[in-house]
Structures are given as structure tokens and as C-alpha cells.
């Protein structure tokens, strides 16, 4: 892109004040998520839950911290850039977006596998009962590795459709663009189905427990 093309792309958003307010709000949400997760981790670590549950939940909270920092840093950067006279410096290249917001985008596709892993862990706890309390952390580690591996595969599939050329630079980074939105949408629909299965498993486990109590 030359300077004239960059200005044509960046100027409409640079002149639109509400977009900066929205980006500031999202950055604030990222900071809030980070602070709440930092507060929650030591509380949960000292709780009486099984080590497998602690491992998975603390890993999930650590991902919230990384996502919050990524979103806050990225959107604050965009607010600064959009507040300056528009030009090529205002736009972010695909590589720049990947480096700044890549981790938060990865987390968006990792939460479902992590939630599903937690559902399986709770299902195992209810199935084995008192025997589960004597088990070590191997199940939690296995479920975490499986969830992260699945997440990495999903994110790699989406990013394999990316156009890394500078001509694909954007005023602010999002979870998808015209090259990746189709694959990202497909993955989100699949993950929605997995979420529903996880909810069913949790509901079934609680139903079995309450039925046994009666």
C-alpha cells in the first residue's frame, strides 16, 4: 500500500471517535479480566478441589490473563495509532496482528476444548468416587495436553488461510478477516456443538449423582 491508499483506509475510522471509545472499553475489559484472574488463581490453588481440577482451572485462568493482556495491549495500541494523523503507520499488517493479538485469538478457540476437558474431569471424579481422590495428577495433565493440542490444530487450520501480504493491513486487528473468517466461523460452529456435548455430560453426571442419593 502507498500512503494515499493507507489514508483512504485509515481516515474514516480515525475520524470516527466512537471506535476509539469502543476500543478503550475493550481494553478496559481485558485489564479487568487479567486482574480478576490474578486474584482468583491463589484462591483456587488453596481450595480443596482435586489436583486435576485445580490444574485445569488454573491453566484456564492463566489463559484468561494472557488473553486479557493481549487484548488490552492491542486495543490501546490501536487507540494511539488512530489518534494520530492517518497514514500507513495507522494500519497493522497481518504479521503484526498475529504477534499482538495472536494469543487472544488462540484462546478464543481453546476455551471450548478446555471446558470439555473440565467436563470429562468432573465426570471421572463422579464415576470413580472416593477412588478418584487417591489418584494423582496424570489425568489432568493428559486432558490439558489434549485440549491444548486440539486448540493449536484448530488455530493452525484457521491461520493457514491467512494472506500475510502487506496489502492486507487493517486499521485494527480482529479475530478474522476476509481470508480467515470462513474457516473461523466453521470452527466456531463445531466448537459450539462440542460445548453442547460438554454441557450434556455435566448434566448427566449431576443427574446420576442426585439419582443415587435418592
Automatic annotation (TrEMBL):
It is a multi-pass membrane protein. Pfam families: 7TM_GPCR_Srab. InterPro entries: 7TM_GPCR_serpentine_rcpt_Srab, Nematode_rcpt-like_srab. It comes from the Eukaryota. Keywords: Membrane, Transmembrane, Transmembrane helix. It is found in: Membrane. The chain crosses the membrane at residues 17-35, 55-78, 98-118, 138-158, 188-207. GO terms for cellular component: membrane. PANTHER family: SERPENTINE RECEPTOR CLASS ALPHA_BETA-14, SERPENTINE RECEPTOR, CLASS AB (CLASS A-LIKE)-RELATED. This is Uncharacterized protein. It comes from Mesorhabditis spiculigera. The lineage of its organism: Eukaryota, Metazoa, Ecdysozoa, Nematoda, Chromadorea.
